[in-house]
Amino acid sequence: MKPTLHNGEEVMVLRTKKIHRFDVVLATDQAGLVYVKRVIGLPGDNIRYHNEKLYVNGRVVAEDFLYKQLDLNKHQRYTADFPADYTSKGVHVPQGTYFLVGDNRPISRDSRTFGVIPKKQIKGRVVCNIAPFDQFRFF
């Protein structure tokens, strides 16, 4: 989840019934592996990336939390376009599921590889980083 979280940091997770776009959540995949990822697709959404922009239901949605933290070379691609068929209308997020991505987009294993996550597999929302203490911050 770099640049938001780094290896070895500890977080506080709260169980919640409501999940919002851009929440950082703790979730498990079908194999039971645990992930900390960011919610970009809500149930019923149609999402896609094209030219480093997130489109939700056909509209560009800014990801200020991500780009303020990055020092990107103008020629460096950070988030690859998806779906692969750019004429497609995007990825549909079925009811009861969420599309999760990591903030370290070039190497993140997330919904782009393992698919959408059912709500029951989202264990809670990450609310703050608690260790190391000098890195404490709320999300």
TrEMBL record:
<dbReference type="InterPro" id="IPR036286">
    <property type="entry name" value="LexA/Signal_pep-like_sf"/>
</dbReference>
<dbReference type="GO" id="GO:0009003">
    <property type="term" value="F:signal peptidase activity"/>
</dbReference>
<dbReference type="InterPro" id="IPR019533">
    <property type="entry name" value="Peptidase_S26"/>
</dbReference>
<feature type="domain" description="Peptidase S26">
    <location>
        <begin position="1"/>
        <end position="127"/>
    </location>
</feature>
<dbReference type="GO" id="GO:0005886">
    <property type="term" value="C:plasma membrane"/>
</dbReference>
<dbReference type="GO" id="GO:0006465">
    <property type="term" value="P:signal peptide processing"/>
</dbReference>
<dbReference type="InterPro" id="IPR019757">
    <property type="entry name" value="Pept_S26A_signal_pept_1_Lys-AS"/>
</dbReference>
<dbReference type="InterPro" id="IPR000223">
    <property type="entry name" value="Pept_S26A_signal_pept_1"/>
</dbReference>
<keyword id="KW-0645">Protease</keyword>
<protein>
    <recommendedName>
        <fullName>Signal peptidase I</fullName>
        <ecNumber>3.4.21.89</ecNumber>
    </recommendedName>
</protein>
<dbReference type="GO" id="GO:0004252">
    <property type="term" value="F:serine-type endopeptidase activity"/>
</dbReference>
<keyword id="KW-0378">Hydrolase</keyword>
<comment type="similarity">
    <text>Belongs to the peptidase S26 family.</text>
</comment>
<dbReference type="Pfam" id="PF10502">
    <property type="entry name" value="Peptidase_S26"/>
</dbReference>
